[in-house]
Amino acid sequence: MSCNCGESKSLELQESFQELLKKYKGTRGALIPLLQEAQEIYGYLPKEAMQQISGTLNIPFSKTYGVVTFYSQFHLKPRGRNIIRVCQGTACHVRGATKVFDAVSKKIQVAKNETTKDLRYTLETVACLGACGLAPVMMVNEDTHGRLTADKAGGIIERYE
Amino acid sequence: MKDLMDKCCSKCFHTSEKPCRDYLACRLEGPLCHQDETCSRKRRDFINSIIIPQESKKREILICAGTGCASSGALGLLAKISEELETRGLSDSVGVKITGCHGFCEQGPLMIIEPSKTFYTQVQEEDVAEIVEKDLLGGELAEHLLYQDPITGERAATYEQVPFYARQKRLVLHNCGHINPEEISDYIANKGYLGVSKAVFELTPEQIIEDVKLSGLRGRGGAGFPTGLKWGFVHQAQGDKKYVVCNADEGDPGAFMDRSVLEGDPHAVLEGMMICGYAVGADEGYIYVRAEYPLAIKRLKIAIEQAEKYGILGNNIMDSGFNFSIKIKAGAGAFVCGEETALLTSIEGNRGMPRVRPPFPAQSGLWGKPTCLNNVETFANIPQIIRNGGSWYSSIGTENSKGTKIFALTGNVNNTGLVEVPMGISMRDIIFSIGGGIKNGKKFKAVQIGGPSGGCLPEEMLDLSVDYDSLNSAGAMMGSGGLVVMDETTCMVDVARYFLSFTQSESCGKCTPCREGTTRMLEILTRICDGQGKMEDIDTLERLARVVRSTSLCGLGQTCPNPIISTMRFFKDEYISHIRDRHCPAGACKALLEYRIISEKCRGCGMCIKVCPAEAISGEKKQPHVIDPAKCIKCGSCKEVCKFDSIVIA
Ligand SMILES: Cc1cc2nc3c(=O)[nH]c(=O)nc-3n(C[C@H](O)[C@H](O)[C@H](O)COP(=O)(O)O)c2cc1C
Ligand code: FES
User: Fold this and answer.
1) What are the pLDDT digits (tens) for B587-621?
2) Strands A121-126, A114-115: pairing kind
3) Which residue has the higher pLDDT, B316 or B333?
4) Between the CA of residue B123 and those of A49, B99, B409, B492, what are the distances in Å?
5) Phi, psi of B469 (to 5 degrees)
6) What is the pLDDT of residues B159-206, one digit of tens each?
7) What integer pLDDT is reported at residue A30 of this predicted model?
8) Model confidence pLDDT, tens digit, residues B204-213
9) Which of A92, A101, A144 to mutate to test the pocket of ligand 2 (most atoms within 8 A of CB)?
């Protein structure tokens, strides 16, 4: 093994995670913010991280797991570099959101809540992004794109490497 | 002195540790503790640079940077304008600022020039040079960017002349789109925080609660519970510690007013919470915001930081002895967390499942302590009620629904966006006068109000007065205020199925009627949409709806049958067509559609053959084409490209 850059990266993540645990130790109601910030570090919630969180907060692992699986924001598997969230809210639904979703899904060849093999995209749906005036809408990472058509949506996702 | 918030000279001693009682009044009319012409001129100049007087030569460009306009390109526009003003040497006489949502998202990016109230729509980066040249330097209007009425073709020079705004009454939204939400001085120059200073210095908690009762304000989060009454309960509850919680979970798909208020005027929500805290005896507040609203969270953080920095939030606020702090909690994506007991248990770090009430949060809420929980819009109404008095507020609206309500007008309507109207206005006025009627000249079919807990109202109900009680008696509800307009191409059975699929997946599973009932009802509705329905399904649905409504644990289950009940009440014939004739009258349910080419109209141009992804269309050039129903996937692409209207849905 001549190259250990991957290792140092994971060490770095480990360090920020330990910082995080320290920050929240002993705080009431800290489980959800802790999970949220841990997910920001790792991109998802590895089992070991959840175990350490349970240990630090002194709560059973089953409870942590229960909370993680209750909220749609938490992920147990690694996700793509670009998160596509197609709105399925009412306003978007009546203006053709299903067609937009089908087009994106067909283009990148994955179904709802799946990730492409090259980890470039994860496709998700969301119930209303609060930009209903521009329906149909999708969000790629932090960017909101509105007034979509099946065609336009396909073009937009190509911009995200 | 660089800012309205700063000291005018060394005589001002206000800091957050050693606060001054007159701090706010001093910013507006000061200095109060000493006489000094230079100091008072400085203060006046700052106010005038925020609210530009009509006679001033200075101009200010306001660019909407709400989520809607930002996604239409507002931020690029901002950079371009600043650059252009710089090169033209106009930076001193023309200010630029970003604001929250103006409400008219359909026409974004929006730009306002004050003090002339000029209103430009759909402004692109290419238009910047023209605006600077013609308007700012030449004093003329850039005509083609003014809003054009789609019916009369007339242009409106100012926002006050645009029909979309002219019929509204913007109380809660009065600052949205006019102030910079990231600058506390903008809020204060517009009388911000005078409500809380009046509350803590001039009123007792009991007087505040009386005033809120007198105002007639009812909760804007859905159920419409009288706010003053709720505050009274928390005030009376025994406890050494109490909490104030703001519900900013806004889960109703199709509603975004809370988001716009938080993004456009975050201090108003903080001020409302502080007044509430003083009235009920709480010193700590939480705002529970959806994680899908990153911009709202960012603006709230900035607002809290600034208010703390100037001693408006924190310990011994303005030397009144009143302490109040506010924390933000980001939601983690679960609709049911909008329900108050679920929300509280989620803040505590648990699965967000509702529990039986009583005890109500007013007695036992966050960590078992008395808790006053209100919606964003409810809190945003409070500062004005305290400033202007409860009787002023109760002069607006109807007998039992006072004040104004913000609606998110969306769907198949010409002018989508946020509208704030007095209670009691008719639905027809909202959709046709403000909303400009139905898109693409289609026919109105129904309006959905109240989200997954609400109902669909047909044409006959359009003259209904929009208030809590009329809506309830029509089988809909105010809900959070989403208004989704549907035209003749929307299938009402599909709409019911859509809402049930939403509530089914969001049901937390704790109680059986909701968990199993939504699943069974969804199965039946899906079957009907797929053309597999049976006549007895209608009775079964009605019975299930009744049971789920009366036996579920929380509001989610109790109200989830409403979309079914109301569509069955007003659009039963559509259900019957789907079941008996295997036909979807709106042409929306894919399984029941058949695309056909009318051979007399078809010119054989071949466009449809080209776009069909399933190779289902065949025919010689210049000869009528045919669609093979076995291969057709009913995507509708052929109908969209046909120039001769020869493709029909049968
Ligand atoms: C399933 C469900 C979802 C709800 N979602 C919200 C919401 O997103 N925002 C909100 O303010 N209230 C929501 N409510 C209503 C709250 O339970 C509560 O009544 C309200 O926040 C009280 O504030 P108010 O009196 O100011 O309206 C929801 C209720 C239910 C049953
Ligand atoms: S319904 Fe899609 S953004 Fe609201």
Assistant:
1) 888 888 888 999 999 999 999 998 887 788 999 99
2) antiparallel
3) B316
4) 48, 15, 22, 37
5) -75, -40
6) 999 999 999 999 999 999 999 999 999 999 999 999 999 999 999 999
7) 93
8) 999 999 999 9
9) A92
Task: For residue A90, give the ligand 2 atom closest to its CA.
Answer: 1
How is domain B493-580 classified at the CATH fold level? de novo design (two linked rop proteins) (1.20.1440)
Contact predicate B482/B455, CB 8 Å: no
Residue nearest ligand 1's atom 23 by CA: B374
First to last CA, chain B: 73
Instruction: Give the tokens for residue B412.
Output: 């198949």
CATH 3.30.70.20 fits B594-649, yes or no: yes
User: Each residue of B372-427: pLDDT tens digit?
Assistant: 999 999 999 999 999 999 999 999 999 999 999 999 999 899 998 899 999 999 99
Q: What is the pLDDT of residues B366-377, one digit of tens each?
A: 999 999 999 999
| B335: nearest CB among A29, A127, A147 | A127
Buried-exposed string A123-152: b where 16+ CB fall within 10 A, e elsewhere? bbbbbbbbbbbbbbbbbbeeebbbbbebee
State the pLDDT at residue A1: 44
A51 to chain B, minimum CA–CA distance in Å? 16
Across the interface, do B411 and A71 touch by the CB < 8 Å criterion?
A: no
B17-21 mean pLDDT: 91
CATH level 3 topology of B59-166 = Glutaredoxin (3.40.30)
- Put simply, the chain A residues between 75 and 94 with a CB less than 8 A from any chain B CB are 88-91, 93-94
Chain B residues with CB-CB distance to A66 below 8 A? 351
**A29/B335 touch (CB, cutoff 8 Å), yes or no:** no
Contact between chains at B292 and A93 (C-beta distance less than 8 A): no
Tell me how far the alpha carbon of residue A138 lies from the centroid of ligand 2, in angstroms: 9
CATH topology for the B404-490 domain: Ubiquitin-like (UB roll) (3.10.20)
- Identify the weakest region by mean pLDDT among B15-19, B258-262, B507-511, B524-528: B15-19
Q: For residue A40, give Cα distances in angstroms to A13, A35, A79, B110, B384.
A: 10, 9, 12, 34, 39
Which of A70, A73, A145 comes nearest B351 by C-beta? A70
Secondary structure class of B415 (helix, strand, coil): coil
Chain mean pLDDT for chain B: 93
> What does residue B160 show for φ and ψ, rounded to 5 degrees?
-65, -20
Q: If you average pLDDT over every residue of chain A, what do you get? A: 90
Distance in angstroms (rounded) separating the CA atoms of residues B239 and B359: 15
* Interface contact A144, partner B, CB < 8 A: yes
Nearest Cβ partner of A29 from B348, B410, B448? Answer: B348
Pick the CATH number of B184-394 from 3.90.1150.10, 3.40.50.11540, 3.40.50.720, 3.30.479.30: 3.40.50.11540
Interface predicted TM-score of the whole assembly (ipTM), two decimals? 0.89
Dump pLDDT digits (tens) for B271-294: 999 999 999 999 999 999 998 888
Of the candidates B386, B380, B433, the residue with the CA atom closest to the CA atom of residue B404: B380
Of the residues A93, A94, A140, the best mutation for testing chain B's interface (the one with the most B CB atoms within 10 Å of its CB) is A94
pLDDT tens-digit series, residues A125-155: 988 887 888 889 999 988 889 989 888 898 9
